[in-house]
Amino acid sequence: MPGRNGRRGRFEAAITGLGMMTPAGTGTAASWKGIRQGAGTEAVKVPELADIAADFVCRVPGFDPVEVLGRRRAGQFDRSSQLLLAAAIEAVADSGLDPQSWDGARVAVVIGNGIGGAQTWETQHRRLLDSGSRRVSPRLIPMLSANMAAGYVSMEFGAQGPSMVTATACASGTTAIGTARELLRSGACDVVITGGTEAPLTPSLVSGFSQMGALSKRTDDIRAASRPFDADRDGFVAAEGAAVLVLERAEDARARGAGIRAMVSGYGASADAYHPTAPDPECKGAALALRAALRDAGVTAQEVDHVNAHGTATLINDATEARLIHGVLGDRPLVTSVKGVTGHSLSAAGAIEAAVSALTLAESFVPPTANLESLDPEIELEVVAKEGRWMPVEVVVSNSFGFGGQNAVLVLTRA
Q1: Backbone angles phi and psi of 24, in degrees to 5
Q2: From the candidates 58, 170, 189, 283, which is the catalytic residue?
Q3: Which residues are within 8 A (CB) of 49 and not within 5 positions of it... i.e. 6 or more apart?
Q4: Of 189, 283, 306, 310, which residue is the catalytic one?
Q5: What is the reported pTM?
Q6: Would residue 306 show up in a list of annotated catalytic residues for this protein?
Q7: pLDDT in tens, 162-205
Q8: What is the DSSP letter of 266?
């Protein structure tokens, strides 16, 4: 049965495994190192985007799916699923759990994935137009379907418990982790493989974001393109990535002597009910989610040490999130956005940032916000810039917000 013996009697899910595939590095250690250093946006120019105002993106460096999955298997998956499976394999290995001996019926999979197999869709559509329907891959449908992100992970590990994908735009990864925690609390499963993935770096999608005016056009200095909370920010940098967390009930993890990175102690979600793409400037919906997460975790605003912000580096979103943080938490917590390094990987972003939050707690190190040269004077927060901070960290808030007014917030605490 689910336990409730965590902080102040609240339910806590233990993070016992981490896997990360991000533009900061391939694997958790490399990703954390790149984010800790905060050297600048890991962006590259892409020839296929040459006629787009934003002709650069953030890719996972050196990632070879063949090395992880083998040539035959790698060819069966879209790029988003390749990244996800690589992160999941790392996370399960990190947890110390043995998929060969666990009860698969008690293992769930919850993955955030908003767009699905974007690269497959675009490649196969081009093949249809150029060569006709007989040249379209028979694997097209399972490769592009968003639900297969969870399906492929469940097949990889024999996980026969609940398997689902959450699609709340850029909040999807955070929504997935919050949903995973609820499955553990309900007693529906004993282990959840959860996180998010996205590989949206196709000409159509990048063009769409560019036409919206959401992307940075700093083509002459792409290392400094993503500038969260900076007075000179001009948009986000599109990115791919994946992160996976293995969650267990805290008492179960302790009983088996697992290495616990951090606890997922609170979750809150809400909707702005305001606009398809713009956040509510009064932050009413987002404040509901943040306060719900604090209440669920049993912590007060004054106890929050650090906020891993959504921080996309767009003008409106950064300013709105800053008002939210200041209005609910005040000016005490240190604030970081890792998107100065990683760019914005949409549905994967919340999962990546939850993993970073867990590492922040485990190592007592708050990473810097890359490319922050001059804090926007309207932002009344202490945003960490230049160099990270070594300091005791007990409570971290991780924010995620998405199109459609989707708000999702996690509270993570020290193990």
Answers
A1: -80, -15
A2: 170
A3: 55, 56, 57, 203, 206
A4: 310
A5: 0.96
A6: no
A7: 999 999 999 999 999 999 999 999 999 999 999 999 999 999 99
A8: E
Cα 290 to Cα 268: distance, rounded to the nearest angstrom: 6
The count of residues in the chain is: 415
* Nearest-5° Cα angle at 392, 388 to 396: 80
**Which one of the listed residues 58, 283, 306, 344 is annotated catalytic?**
344
Q: H helices within 13-64, ranges in order?
A: 28-37
Q: Is 326 a catalytic residue?
A: no
- Exposed/middle/buried for 220, CB within 10 Å: 0-12, 13-18, 19+? exposed
* DSSP bridge pairs for 393: none
Chain segment 228-244, per-residue pLDDT in tens:
999 999 999 999 999 99
Nearest of 311, 327, 312 to residue 383 by alpha carbon: 311
Residue 16's φ and ψ, nearest 5 degrees, are -110, -10
E strands along 168-237, which residues?
191-198
Q: Is 275 a residue of the active site?
A: no
Give residues with Cβ within 8 angstroms of 397, minimum separation 6.
Answer: 290, 293, 294, 304, 306, 307, 308, 329, 333, 409, 410, 411, 412
